[in-house]
Write the structure tokens for this entry.
Amino acid sequence: MQTELAPEYKNTPEGLAAEAILRKCVHCGFCTATCPTYQLLGDELDGPRGRIYLIKQVLEGHAPTRSTQLHLDRCLTCRNCESTCPSGVQYGHLVDIGRKIVDDKVPRPALESATRWLLKEGLPSPLFGPAMKLGQSVRGLLPDALKAKVPAPQPSGHWPARIHARRMLLLAGCVQPSMAPNINKATARVLDAAGIQSVIAPKAACCGAVKFHLDDHEGARVQMRANIDAWWPHIEGDGGHAVEAIVMNASGCGVTVREYGHLLKDDAAYAAKAQRVSALTKDLSELLPELAAALKDRVKAPPGVIAYHPPCTLQHGQQLRGGVEASLRALGFDVQLARNESHLCCGSAGTYSVLQPALAYALRDRKLGHLAQLQPTTIVSANIGCITHLQSAGQTPVRHWVELLDEAMAAPAHQNAGALR
């Protein structure tokens, strides 16, 4: 797509990056067929091709409007369009650039600005955990809309006590320890049973995704640098115990940390470190073939169908497909994907379900309808946002797949691993 940048964007990092992406687009429209918001709304400007045109116009000097901002806001950044684009257009990077430019030029209403500020400052805050505990303590009194965002407290067992020669970093995350503490502990127990020690760097916090996707790019980069600093001694192997990998059990965090190298490429002090962090980052599912081989004699899979919803951040953002299903099936689980639209977003998309609730809940109910056709005993996913969003309907239980694997391991294996249940 031919683009003539306006003077204010020529020779800027954002302008040059956007122009390179735009030039790959041949406006074929394949992307509209897999765009969730286009499927719901049927508006060209609420699909990737239309949003690309809007961003192109802004970069060429046209003044953006509130309408421009709204169409960009409605994008889930699910990156499904990238999976179907024949030209390799990096739409996710482009929409991040476009949103930031438009937000700098188009003021938001006061309530909307306040909501976005609370989300980007509140979710990664150390105060989120106490606030979630308070919400859970009065959950029965909350209105339905708020109750849907506050999951009931859950037991989480214990962190394994054994020490192993093999060590991997695990990012605890900003909301996961409070909303679903069993996910991290189940991950540590499963890795422990396979002879791998999970290490959490206490000063590693939010991956930066929340702030970045709410257009606070510099605030996000501050968080990214802080994580790199927290992880670096473990990566370098201070004391002779270097970690093998940085493991992500939330695919939304994983796709962001995998892009640290790209997002910090112009930072002279952190570019090389960021590239190394990105290279070391693995989604937990990438370890599953090895884990399945190590645990095959210890796992007794439960009866019934397990419906698997692959998060967009895993199947489109990280281009990881099929691994969870194949390995869990090899262990005896009856794992099935939805027969229709397994590629489409569930509507969670980070803070999207708060900022665009009508679209988010329409997509959630559409996804749950397809999954219900499988008559599952449980729905599993690989991202805390998807799990919480799908669970908010109060229908079939929704969990992380690693929790099911953890529970399916035979009791003696848990005891040998030092995990007290």
